[in-house]
Design brief:
The protein has about 130 residues and is an all-beta fold. It has strands spanning about 5, 15-20, 40-45, 55-60, 75, 80-85, 90-95, 100. It has a domain at about 5-25 and about 35-100: Nucleic acid-binding proteins (OB fold (Dihydrolipoamide Acetyltransferase, E2P), Beta Barrel), CATH 2.40.50. The chain is built from no helices and 8 strands.
Length: about 130
């Protein structure tokens, strides 16, 4: 098992899919790292730069990421992938030093929702 660094700058947009949850043992106790810090797991979705493809990954961090909102864009710091194989099963686990929310640029605002359209071909109100 070899840890491989992942260049998040080449991944595209990363969003929080599932808010952080405690990473637990089969007995339901929260797992801890070597220093005794509690481990958290966060579901992320990555939109590839070159198309419409999305990849879902679950990333473990030491300590609970703060301020994440499901659907919100995030920044992942020091992301590593670790391939594993046990009893004929295999996969990749992901660890990161931190997952933080991306702040909107200063002065940016969310667009107002467009008004609901009335029936086609008819006025939305008033005398006809």
């Amino acid at each position: 098992m070899i840890n491989k660094p992942i260049d998040t700058g080449r991944l595209g947009t990363i969003r929080c899919l599932i808010a952080p949850e405690p990473r637990t043992t089969l007995e339901g106790e929260q797992r801890r790292d070597r220093e005794g810090n509690p481990l958290w797991i966060t579901g992320l979705v990555v939109r590839q730069l070159d198309g419409r493809r999305l990849d879902e990954v679950h990333v473990v961090t030491s300590g609970q990421p703060q301020g994440l909102v499901e659907g919100g864009e995030v920044k992942v710091t020091d992301l590593w992938g670790n391939d594993w194989e046990i009893d004929g099963r295999s996969g990749t686990t992901y660890r990161a030093a931190a997952i933080t929310p991306v702040q909107a640029p200063v002065g940016a605002s969310t667009p107002a929702p467009s008004p609901a359209a009335g029936p086609r071909g008819k006025s939305a109100g008033g005398d006809a």
